[in-house]
């Protein structure tokens, strides 16, 4: 009997991304008959952070081999990604954040296809590298973010005016999205306050403000059709 839903394993960077998928993305995409299972990229004796392709490729390959009826996708941050990631050096030469993302995702898809060609990655693997951090999505609703952090909305608006849009909030150790949130308020904690902010904003608001995120979700939605 043919199932009428699609299973997708989401290989995520760490606990924040895992919670984001579990609490927001999975319920949202279930409405499209797409069922997500978030799994943190494995590393001997450690979880989260330090996102190297040398670490990710083993998990990607294992899931492609072991669960041939499922799709595999990624949810990892461009900020802090290791220089061994496919497309990394070329992406650093691009000024536009969309170009950076496209370079990384196309290079990742090509590399995975070359490494695991026996397991149909061209039809089962969807790369996604968020610009520049998952926390950029929380800037999609300045009023909500300001309320949740108990700060003036003008402080959020100023960041958006400087950067242009949430996904352009940059890739610097002092000014990456999570760093800015931590500076705005000591209340901000990635896996608690951050997820609560995301739930308050909602997926649709994030899609409207973040085109790259929206494109990824469109691709996932289409799996259920």
UniProtKB/TrEMBL annotation:
A Pfam family hit: DUF4276
Protein name: DUF4276 family protein
Organism: Thioflexithrix psekupsensis
């Amino acid at each position: 009997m043919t199932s009428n839903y699609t299973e997708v394993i989401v290989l995520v960077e760490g606990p924040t991304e895992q919670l984001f998928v579990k609490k927001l993305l999975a319920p949202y995409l279930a409405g499209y008959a797409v069922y997500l299972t978030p799994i943190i990229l494995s590393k001997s004796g450690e979880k989260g952070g330090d996102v190297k392709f040398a670490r990710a490729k083993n998990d990607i390959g294992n899931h492609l081999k072991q669960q041939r009826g499922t799709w595999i996708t990624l949810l990892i941050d461009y900020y802090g990604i290791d220089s061994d990631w496919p497309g990394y050096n070329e992406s650093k030469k691009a000024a536009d954040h969309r170009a950076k993302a496209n370079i990384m995702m196309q290079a990742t898809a090509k590399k995975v296809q070359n490494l695991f060609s026996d397991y149909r990655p061209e039809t089962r693997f969807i790369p996604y590298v968020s610009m520049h951090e998952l926390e950029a999505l929380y800037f999609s609703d300045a009023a909500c973010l300001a309320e949740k952090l108990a700060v003036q909305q003008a402080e959020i608006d100023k960041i958006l005016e400087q950067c242009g849009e949430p996904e352009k909030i940059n890739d610097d150790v002092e000014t990456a999205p999570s760093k800015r949130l931590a500076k705005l308020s000591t209340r901000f904690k990635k896996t608690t306050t951050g997820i609560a902010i995301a739930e308050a904003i909602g997926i649709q608001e994030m899609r409207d403000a973040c085109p790259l995120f929206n494109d990824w979700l469109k691709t996932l939605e289409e799996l259920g059709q």
